[in-house]
Structures are given as C-alpha cells and as structure tokens.
Amino acid sequence: MAEQGDWDGEFDLRWAASAEHKEPSARARMLAARWKENPPDPAPFRADPTPVRGSRRSSWVSTAVVLGCVAAVIVLLGWAQMRSGY
User: What does residue 52 show for φ and ψ, rounded to 5 degrees?
Assistant: First the structure.
C-alpha cells in the first residue's frame, strides 16, 4: 500500500501543471538556438501546392474513362436482357 502512495506522489500531474516555470522541450530549445543564428524565411500558414502540369488533360481523360465504363455497362445490360428474352 505504501508503494501506491509513493507512485501517486511521484506522478502528480496537477502539481506539475501548476509549476511556475516550465522548461521548453528539447526541440523548442534546438529551434530557438538555430533561429538565433539563421532565422527562417517567412512562409504562409498553408502554402499552395505547386500546380500539376497537364491537370486539365487528366480531368478529361478521367471523364472519358467514366463515361466509357457507364456506356459499356449499359450495352452489357442491354445485351444480357436481349439474350434472356429469347
């Protein structure tokens, strides 16, 4: 039972959260040291991706493929219905 009390005292999250001074993480310290010497270039929050070349062509190709598949299904269903009618 004494171990349970020691465990709670050692990992008391409320006590840790109420600390006056919180040390930054190792990554934050590393970036702060790096940026003191060489600050990063300004960048937008979400940069637009570079445009893909030929994106208009690929949209037409995909549209043609979809319409071709629909036409093939219609023809296949019509053929199957015609065969079963005899």
Answer: -85, 130
pLDDT tens digit sequence for 2-51? 455 555 556 677 877 787 777 889 999 999 999 999 998 887 777 667 76
CB proximity list for 15: less than 8 A, separation 6 or greater: none
Cite the beta strand spans of the chain per DSSP E. none
Whether the pTM exceeds 0.85: the reply is: no
The encoded tokens of residue 50 equal 């570079």
What distance in Å separates the CA atoms of residue 73 and residue 67, rounded to the nearest whole number?
Answer: 10
Given its phi and psi angles, is residue 54 left (phi above 0), alpha (psi -120 to 50 degrees) or beta? left
